[in-house]
Design brief:
124 residues, homodimer, DNA-binding, 5 helices, elongated
Chain lengths: 124, 124
DNA sequence: TATAAATCTACACTTGACGTCAGGTTTGAT
DNA sequence: ATCAAACCTGACGTCAAGTGTAGATTTATA
């Protein structure tokens, strides 16, 4: 598919796709003589994954350095250990983030309880 | 305490503190004739909370509009219900984010398992 | 009392992540 | 064949979130 369709399907603007390409986050699988970019379905999946990683707070640079891990094919065992390392680091980071969110969550709950108490008290 | 100490204690640069003040995220509790800013302990807590909210992905503008909820004193029951609403919305948001992170986490785990399998296979 | 360190204001600069615009090429529909 | 729509590149603009710098003032210390 061409860039327009990819943009429509993913909700990512074509200029943003250009930009991501320049950063090495994804690349069209062929450009033939004409200059037009042609993408396959994986490109759409990559864009989705990029969005998810962004939501996690990763910068595009950080994403660029890990995105390929999610789309490696089964061939090429070379470097797999390193991939494993990086993935495990990501796992740790994710756990940390979850823990932080949990703490934040109970903070909010405490605040809610406090306010609810105040309201109740005021109503009596 | 003066801005330097606050900066040291929170790890937020004095320039950033100035910047936050301009955005209405926090304000020194007095400035007397001299022009120097003097902060109390609450300022440090506010900076911490700002950091937490940023980590949740809130913009400084959004933070400015909710930060006070966390530091309201017990007086003034007026509007408490609204505060409650906002806090509950935040709670929901937080839950959503936690859920997203969990999904992301199991994604990573799946990838780790896949790669581990590949390595093991290659070693045999 | 001198002088170095901390602080002030105001303005300019930076970086990341895009968006806009202009001028040119390619494609698709008639 | 033509002509609009889609695409290309490159340069510039923008917005958020800061950071840097200069010149002046205030405070702390020897």
């Amino acid at each position: 598919m061409k860039i327009g369709e990819l943009a429509d399907r993913t909700g990512v603007s074509h200029r943003t796709i250009h930009y991501y390409e320049r950063l090495g986050l994804l690349s069209p699988n062929q450009r033939e003589g004409t200059g037009y970019r042609y993408f396959d379905d994986e490109a759409a999946k990559r864009l989705e994954k990029i969005g998810a990683l962004k939501k996690l707070g990763l910068s595009l640079d950080e994403i660029a350095s890990v995105i390929d891990l999610y789309f490696e094919d089964a061939t090429g065992i070379r470097g797999k250990r390193k991939v494993l390392e990086i993935l495990k680091a990501q796992l740790d980071e994710t756990d940390t983030k979850i823990a932080e969110l949990r703490r934040f969550r109970s903070d909010i709950e405490a605040n809610i309880a406090r306010i609810e108490f105040l309201i109740e008290e005021a109503e009596r």
